[in-house]
Predict the 3D structure of the following.
Amino acid sequence: MSTDWIIETGDARDLPALQPLLAAADLPPDELEAVLPDGLLVARAGGRLVGAVALQPAGDHGLLRSLVVDPAWRGRGLGVALVDALETLASDRGLRALYLLTETAGEFFPRHGYVPADRARVPAAVAATAEFSSVCPGSAVCLAKPLRPLA
């Protein structure tokens, strides 16, 4: 499949363009600055931001958050490409697993290796993030994916 986008590291200048995408997808923008300077991946097409995903390290684990794709770009594999790029980034940083909370993408992530996880048993550093402790409601589905064999 040919792609019409590029995925690259985003920065604070991307946040204003990202806010409306997050709002339209009902995703919390809270503390997204915490993933900067090098945990935000953005997809651009023709110079315009059309998708993003963020990696928030939490000890030797990571929090996958804020996966969003412009509605006009959905169904083209961009979401998968963003998740793949984030998983590579997390693996390159030596993270052992990724965790996430979702209310809207509970069918997307299991197709890509994420399995249900008990929110009460996530690693303490993950549980301490704002995303887990206060931003996402208790009704959000918790999913996890190991990135490398546990030692």
Strands lie at 6-9, 40-45, 48-58, 61-69, 97-102, 115-116, 141-146. The longest helix spans residues 78-92. The two ends are 36 Å apart (CA to CA).
